[in-house]
């Protein structure tokens, strides 16, 4: 939804909504991450963070530069504190035009005189704008905005300037009639009496916003009871950051070392996370080393014996069993070569010396009896950066099954066989799919993985995962990042790829499904083996 529409809906909603101040791209991001639905682009905290006074010392375009960073860094709407509009109606028009260009959702202007001063300063010396002139400014803003949902809030400073309720009501009504979408009623008392007196008279003529900085003891429930639409926490993360900066600066100056501060500040990697370095790393892979056609590799996981096959695997690993004239591994390698995949790594454990086909890189997993698939995968994937096919060593498949995986541009693709026998007795990796992405004549073209469950065959499963997947180079980065996160945890030792895929889906990654109907067999037991004979 457009940011303007988001802000407009907040203002028009029947419940009390909240904005939190921000004053930089980073602080805006932090506000959004904390869960706020919108941001107050505070004049006090922006000018303060620039090291100047809240007296229009920073030019309006300098403030806009900061707002642009804030807007770029966030997806929630920003209501700009537009002070007095930086001049007359004409300056206001220019301001609104520029704000719309940088995707700021609305502006609040106050009925004081340029250059303004902060409302909590200079008791009694806050001259107010002429009502008619200020109404003209509101109208000019509303007339120039291109987006109907751009919000203009008119801020009444009558209480601040000591004029009382009557003047506050008169001004609020005039600004409402001039077209303001909401009124901000400001007060510097330490209780909300003025505000509540105003609300009792105002009724529901237009949404009302407040800035409870000085009446911070008033319970939020009271604001709700008085029908206030928007509460603005106007300067609190700025004040919090000043305190922290003062403490850390003083401490390091005194101690002349970093030993004691380290644990009381965020690690550098938290800065990188907030800056979304992850996205840049992915983009670098994508744009700096684009694939030139044949830069693909394959990883075949073939470390287990295949106990169910009994005597057949007495002296060779399962992947070397001959089906007709060729072993399962030879057939897989042939298909891979036909797809120009030459860099083939086989992670081997049981009887690995028997894996002696030419042009294969055999990587040892000597702990194959005590470790799971992820440990084997890690040994191979650590050595590659390129697009990569991952196959279990015991799968027989037709050549086209590789083609459809490789042709699918998604970063993580798995093959799912929709044909499986409900009579089968043993457990296997069964797949549940997400609802399709879009309406299509061929819905299975848009299936994504929901979950792989190690189970008996069941009617509720979409199909079976035979242990075939493809990762683009971006997919490889995603998997490597997952491995990085988990490799030191005890559960990693026995983790299967199925569990990684489930976790990746949970983390929000999409795992695309390419469906086949038969045309593959995984050679798990004697039954499979006799079927494979006909393959
Ligand atoms: C601001 O945050 O800059 C405001 C609110 O305008 S106040 O400081 O309360 O005037
Ligand atoms: Mg201000």
- Global geometry: elongated
What's the domain count? 2
- CATH fold title of the largest domain: Spore Coat Polysaccharide Biosynthesis Protein SpsA, Chain A
**How much β-strand is present in the residues?**
15-25%
CATH superfamily of the largest domain: Spore Coat Polysaccharide Biosynthesis Protein SpsA, Chain A
| The top level CATH class name of the largest domain | Alpha Beta
**Total count of strands:** 22
Helicity, in percent? Answer: 25-40%
Instruction: Indicate the CATH architecture of the largest domain.
Output: Alpha-Beta Complex
Strand order of the largest sheet: 1-2-3-4-5-6-7-8
What is the CA–CA distance across the termini? 53 Å
Largest sheet: 8 strands, parallel, barrel
Integer average pLDDT: 91
Distinct bound molecules: sulfopyruvate, magnesium ion
Would you tell me the structural class of the helices and strands?
A: alpha/beta
- Count of separate DSSP helical elements: 18
Runs in which pLDDT lies below 50 for 5 or more consecutive residues are none
Radius of gyration: 33 Å
């Amino acid at each position: 939804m457009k940011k303007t529409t988001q802000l407009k809906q907040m203002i028009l909603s029947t419940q009390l909504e909240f904005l939190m101040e921000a004053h930089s791209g980073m602080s805006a991001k932090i506000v959004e991450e904390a869960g706020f639905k919108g941001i107050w682009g505070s004049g006090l905290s922006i000018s303060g963070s620039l090291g100047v006074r809240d007296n229009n010392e920073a030019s309006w375009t300098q403030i806009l530069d900061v707002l642009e960073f804030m807007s770029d860094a966030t997806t929630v709407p920003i209501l700009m504190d537009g002070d007095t509009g930086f001049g007359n109606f004409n300056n206001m028009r220019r301001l609104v035009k520029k704000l719309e260009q940088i995707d700021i959702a609305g502006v609040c202007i106050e009925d004081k005189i340029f250059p303004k001063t902060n409302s909590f300063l200079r008791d009694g010396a806050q001259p107010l704008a002429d009502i008619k002139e200020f109404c003209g400014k509101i109208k000019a803003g509303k007339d120039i905005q291109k987006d109907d949902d751009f919000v203009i809030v008119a801020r009444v400073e009558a209480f601040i300037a000591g004029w009382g309720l009557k003047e506050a009501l008169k001004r609020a009504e005039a600004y409402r009639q001039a077209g303001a979408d909401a009124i901000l009623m400001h007060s510097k008392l330490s209780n909300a009496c003025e505000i509540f007196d105003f609300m009792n008279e105002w009724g529901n003529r237009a949404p009302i916003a407040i800035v409870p900085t000085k009446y911070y003891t008033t319970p939020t429930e009271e604001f709700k009871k008085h029908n206030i639409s928007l509460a603005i926490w106007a300067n609190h993360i700025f004040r919090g950051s000043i305190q922290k900066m003062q403490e850390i600066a003083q401490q390091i100056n005194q101690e002349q070392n970093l030993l004691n501060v380290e644990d009381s500040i965020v690690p550098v990697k938290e800065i990188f996370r907030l800056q979304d370095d992850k996205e840049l790393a992915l983009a670098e892979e994508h744009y700096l080393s684009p694939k030139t056609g044949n830069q693909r590799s394959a990883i075949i996981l073939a470390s287990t014996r295949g106990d169910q096959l009994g005597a057949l695997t007495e002296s060779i690993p399962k992947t070397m069993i001959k089906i007709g004239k060729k072993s399962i591994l030879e057939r897989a390698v042939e298909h891979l070569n036909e797809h120009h995949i030459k860099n083939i790594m086989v992670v081997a454990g049981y009887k690995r010396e028997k894996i002696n086909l030419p042009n294969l890189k055999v990587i040892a997993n000597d702990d194959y009896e005590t470790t799971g698939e992820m440990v084997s995968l890690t040994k191979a994937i650590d050595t590659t950066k390129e697009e990569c096919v991952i196959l279990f060593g015991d799968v027989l498949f037709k050549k086209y099954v590789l083609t459809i995986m490789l042709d699918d541009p998604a970063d993580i693709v798995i093959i799912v066989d929709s044909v499986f026998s409900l009579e089968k007795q043993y457990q296997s990796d069964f797949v549940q799919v997400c609802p399709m992405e879009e309406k299509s004549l061929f819905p299975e073209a848009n299936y994504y993985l929901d979950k792989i469950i190690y189970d008996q065959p069941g009617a509720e499963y979409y199909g079976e995962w035979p242990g075939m997947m493809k990762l683009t180079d971006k997919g490889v980065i995603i998997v490597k990042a997952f491995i990085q996160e988990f490799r030191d945890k005890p559960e990693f030792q026995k983790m299967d790829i199925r569990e990684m895929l489930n976790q990746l889906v949970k983390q929000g990654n999409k795992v695309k499904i390419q469906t086949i109907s038969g045309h593959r067999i995984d050679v798990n037991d004697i039954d499979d083996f006799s079927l494979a004979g006909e393959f």
